[in-house]
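Predict the holo structure. Ligand: zinc ion.
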Amino acid sequence: MELRGLGAEEIVELLKSGEAKREDLMASGICPTCFDREHDFVVFGDNEDKIIYEDEYFEVYLISNPRAHGHINIGTKKHFKDMMELDDETCKRAFLLAKKVMIIIREVYGAKSVYLCTMCDGEMNHFHVQLIPRYAEEKIGSSNFVKPRFDYVEDKEKVMELRRRLDYKE
Ligand SMILES: [Zn+2]
């Protein structure tokens, strides 16, 4: 569905009714992540319960279809297509934050290691970094990037511990 030329309110209604989907936004040159943030989580739904850290530059949250318990995304608030588009300062901040979060995930989840990947390919992507834990019983290597996804199961204690260690207040 072509959304170009429609007002934001119209697009919101089409998304709410299910007539328009995330793919339609992308095909119409609209970033779903930015649109979601600007319009009350209409694309991906409210993820407040999954946010573990936020500041003026980044949002860090547990993802709703993880490949491992503790699979976390770090996204910029500002729109960048991919890592190559980041200004140096944001890039530095993103990877220092990633390092900090990785260490915390390893500790809180008892993971053996934490893998990092960032792809963001295609026209309407929004820069983010994925952090995927690798547990003791799992083989070392790139297969950890494509472990089957499953539905997020909330572990309140871990969420609270992640927030506490990142000094994030709801
Ligand atoms: Zn965006």
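The two ends are 37 Å apart (CA to CA). The domain at 48-165 is CATH 3.30.428.10 (HIT family, subunit A).
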